[in-house]
Amino acid sequence: FTLGLILFAGYFAGRAANFFHLPRISGYVFSGLCFSPSISGVIAPQQIDILFSFISEIALAFIAYSIGGSLLISRVRVLGKEILWINLAEGFGAFVCTVIAVYAVGDFLPPFIHENENTFISVMLILGGISVATAPAATMAIIHELRAKGPLTTTLLGVVALDDALSIMIFSGAITIASLLLLGSIDNAVILHGVITIVGAISVGLVGGFIFRYFLNPSMRPETNLMLTLGAIFLVSGLSSHFGFSPLLANMFMGFVIINTIKQADDLFHQLDIIEEVIYCLFFTLAAAHFDTNVFATSAVLGIALLVGRFIGKLSGTFLGGTFSKASPQIYKNLGITLLPQAGLSLGLIFLAKPILSAEIFDVLLSAMLLSIIMNEIISPPLVKWAITRAGESNPDR
Questions:
Q1: If we measure between CA atoms, which residue out of 154, 166, 189 comes closest to residue 345?
Q2: Do residues 336 and 390 make contact, with C-beta atoms less than 8 angstroms apart?
Q3: Model pTM score
Q4: What is the per-residue pLDDT for 174?
Q5: Is residue 377 over pLDDT 60?
């Protein structure tokens, strides 16, 4: 009943969003806010948690696979230098600007966060590391809705694909320093976690791609390819999770292998269009339904600081990286706006910091992160749509 209610409401919310020239996922987010237990209570909190824990894993794995499938070497090679420099500049830009923003609002935070210098520095580093991640779900949903294609879209997909790896590496360094400051020693498991997560995920993804490429064939019935593709995504995701690797990176690399080793592999990825809207509707509605009005009372200042600091870092870093790499102005003037969405990976990373934080500090950080993400998912989609349209790469009627 709940799933049916979400999909039915999502359909009308998406139509309403399109009427106001907004992307459909904006409608899904507003629909989710209406379903929030703290607003309407239509859906019980337990139902939201159970459904989202399952749907989010499927959605993020599906999206990561699609991102990998967009990285055809022949297309990316032309923009390789731009993608690398922009990715590094916007990633570290988001980290630095978020740290500065949190420091600026330090006096407005609960005393147990800013009274101890080591604790405050650790909080700044952890939140800065988390801010690097860009949520691929919103970006991919809008790209597919607009049928976007061109230099900006290709660069965007390349940067988003690298963002997860960069975020995990920066966060691993940040939490290592935070562990030293808070615990007085560095946990070797924390140091190795980032390396193991990345290397293991890449290995699983590459192996999975080279195995499943023998089963997929663009000339087969779309229903058959869809069944095989979902089976591959689920198997790779489950295997990665079992060993503590990143399912997102694993599926991204599997998609990368598929698109670059199968002739006319574009057709395989287009066949996924038949189910993508259902996945996006469930994912964004359930994510927004986590919103709790009490968040405003406890973490509003920190949540807004995270939002503003990350925005400034992404925009300025993209501009500097694009200018340094001599990218087209069409790319670096529009790309920063398309990198603003934030969601799944950020929430995953904050939970990795839970063992070294006190319960009261972790609760504040989690609440602030949720507030920042929800505001992001409301503000970002229209901006992404506007940037792609302004760059002349929107082809919704194609």
A1: 166
A2: no
A3: 0.70
A4: 79
A5: yes
pLDDT at position 191 over 70: no
Q: What is the mean pLDDT of the chain?
A: 80
Tokens of 349: 């990373």
Structure confidence by residue, pLDDT tens digits, 252-302: 889 889 988 888 787 888 888 788 888 888 888 887 787 777 666 667 888
Pick left, alpha or beta for residue 264 (phi over 0 → left; psi -120 to 50 → alpha; otherwise beta). Answer: left
Rounded to an integer, what distance in angstroms lies between the CA atom of residue 295 and that of residue 33? 13
Among residues 329, 315, 347, the alpha carbon closest in space to that of 127 is found at 347
The pair of structure tokens assigned to 23 is 């992307």
Closest of 254, 225, 226, 250 to residue 238, by C-alpha: 250
Residue in 278, 265, 274 with CA at minimum distance from that of residue 223: 274
Read off the pLDDT band of 231 (50, 70, 90): very high
- Which of helix, strand or coil describes residue 333? coil
Q: What is the reported pLDDT for 49?
A: 80
At 266, which amino acid appears? D
Tokens 């229209």 belong to 382
Q: Residue 42 contacts by C-beta under 8 Å, 6 or more apart in sequence?
A: 5, 34, 35
Give the integer Cα–Cα distance in Å for 174 and 193: 12
